[in-house]
Amino acid sequence: MRSISILLLAIAFSLQAKSQVIEKISGKTIDQQHVTLPEDVKGKYTLLCFASSTKAQKDLESWLDPVYQKFIAKTGLMDDMYDVNVFFIPLVRGGNEIFAEKMKSKFRETAQADLKPHVIFSESNTEQLLSALSMTRTEVPYLFLLDKEAKIIYRTNGAYTEEKFDTIDDLIE
């Protein structure tokens, strides 16, 4: 009986996660293009990658190369196979505007040209966003895969693993 209850709870959680629409997020990319989610991403799968601390940013960097190679880089053969929006979203907490401006400046100076459209500096309330998406652990990055209707179909956190990446890849195919 207990295993049935656990199974039903897991199914209910899964259905709830699949129907959750992403919280409205407004911001600008490094190259100053305004982006509003979910409106601007409907019609394509979207991978959102959040980091709200230096430690989380380091773990998020473990995702950068595989995500870049699979969904951003245009290398010729498979360019049209994956038409996925990808956004890396650093979140600055506690009203630390001086740090935020330094971070934006560093990104503008050092980011590869083809990555600039994929980094969004959120103008939304960070604490509300963290709460709405249940991102409770600031020391880890969070990744959300949205379907074509901008509903969350997968979420994970922490450093890159092949298993996590394969799950994302399988859901997109």
Task: Write structural notes for this entry.
- The protein is α+β, with helices and mostly antiparallel strands and 173 residues long.
- It has a single domain (2-172), classed as 3-Layer(aba) Sandwich (Glutaredoxin).
- 40% of the residues lie in helices and 21% in strands.
- It is built from five helices and seven strands.
- The chain has helices at residues 2-19, 54-72, 97-110, 126-132, 162-172; strands spanning 25-29, 34-37, 45-51, 84-90, 120-122, 142-146, 152-157.
- The strands form two sheets. The chain has a four-stranded mixed sheet. The protein has a three-stranded antiparallel sheet with strand order 2-1-5, with no helix packed on it.
- The radius of gyration is 16 Å and the shape is globular.
Please outline what is shown here:
This protein has 173 residues and is α+β, with helices and mostly antiparallel strands. The protein is built from five helices and seven strands, in the order αβββαβαβαββα.
